[in-house]
Amino acid sequence: MAGALIPSCTLLHSSHLLNFRARSRPSSAPPSTEPFISSRPEKFGFQLLSSRSGRQCFPSVAAAESTATSNILVGDDGSISIDALRRFFDLSSGKWNGSFYQFDGNGRMLQRVSTKLSVSTYGEDDLISLIQTLYIKQPPSSTMVSGYDSEPEWLEYKIKETNMLTVDKYQQIGFFPTEKAFSLRYQTAGMLETVLRAGVLGEDDIGEESPRNLKLPSRFPSVVCENCLYSLKEDMRIRAFHIMDPKGVADMLLIFLEQRDDAPSSISSCSLQDVPDRIIPFLGKWKGHSITKRSGVYGATIAEADTVAFLELDENGQVVQDITSTSTNGSTANIHWSGAVSGNIIKFDGGFQLTLLPGGVYMGFPCDIAKSVSQSQSFHLELCWIESPEKRQRLVRTYDMDGLAVSSTYFLETRVY
């Protein structure tokens, strides 16, 4: 049915996806009261074979089958959601200094812009709100007098405030307070376009829809996803944005690398250091633990598992990845992927791509989200950050076939060799 309603397998804008969902529901069925939980949790992008059931599923789903019921502990008065919201705001508050990077889907850096972010709260209880003001360093104007050194100018941009309604219903937050990680969903890339215009064009911006030599995000993106991981060592974080175009193909990848003002290191450390061969830091065997939570501030944990991941590259540029996931009840799931490396891209045979970025970072996404939608499959977007040679964090955001974020999975892994 999805293929019939989406011509040429073109993925619609997120608002259209919601309309599609309503149209595709049988008329006799009542409206869904829980839009954040996939009715088919087994349909994930990973081509994974569960050793217990023999069917394909995402590693954490096999564990979720046995733990989902026992782990959903949410108070009727909403106290847990208010507490989670406060913890999210506390984690975000402060003055953040850093750099904004723009990459194309192949990992080529297009722009770097210096930014500052001021974050504070106001209000109490369920009326508490998060206020964010972004400051974007302006480039020198083409009209600047030669030889005259002026103070750098910063454009002030007020981001729409965040509260209980926006973070739960619209942004469909996936929040890990102990692990210090979160995922958010956006309808547009307006804020990101502002950073690019102000940080690259500055006063020379004449309002063109597509300025020369500057690639702007689509005005109608199918998916805008933010994944954020906090440093294990410093008061620093990385925020990565997947921007998928209206057809469901990667439009661009954007990263904020930020440090809180009271962090011990200087702002100069907020840079993504590149290496000649970006795949090298990810090779080897990694052991760790994963936690999967439903979307929303109530965000009950639905699965936990111990994981072992192995990535190998041969002399012909062929890549093999093996992942084993063992849930808390002892059930085991295994995945075997093969693919090839070309430049800064790893493409696996199942249609999933990893784009390797500087600084021990990769961002993963389907090569064609529209194909997943046309086949009534869910899909996921991934961020991985190797902050030190022996530790890495990963955050996976899972969407159902209608473009709704249904869960997020956090991984903390240690290199074995």
From TrEMBL:
Top-level taxon in the UniProt lineage: Eukaryota
Domain DUF3598, chain residue ranges per copy: 85-261
Stretches assigned to the Biogenesis factor required for ATP synthase 1-like C-terminal domain: 282-416
InterPro entries per UniProt: BFA1-like_C, BFA1-like_DUF3598, Calycin
GO biological process: chloroplast fission
Protein name: DUF3598 domain-containing protein
Organism expressing this protein natively: Dendrobium nobile (Orchid)
Organismal lineage: Eukaryota, Viridiplantae, Streptophyta, Embryophyta, Tracheophyta
